[in-house]
Amino acid sequence: MASSHDLVLTTVPGGNALSPFRAAALRARLRRVVPSLTAVSARHVHWVASEEPLDEPTAATVERLLTYGPPDAGDAQGAHVAVVVVAPRLGTLSLWGSKST
What we know:
This protein is an alpha+beta fold and 101 residues long. It has helices spanning 20-31, 56-65, 95-99, and strands at 8-16, 43-50. It has one domain (4-99). Helix content is 27%, strand content 17%. The radius of gyration is 17 Å and the shape is elongated.
């Protein structure tokens, strides 16, 4: 296998990570700290590391496998947006991800 510096990283957008109920609850908690906060959203983002760029059939299969749940509502337009990325440590494989190889 190639070293990690030789890998191609493909980004696949995912769906919403918060239900409307959970987003409302989180927004209420965060507004105690940031009263001007108007909205909270979270989405899944998947990164696929491969030795070569994904060909069209493989990319289509990966996107089909990683499309689930309600779609992401999109970025807030005209708002000040803070982005926080929560990710596992480098080198961590998810349980299901290791089974997909």
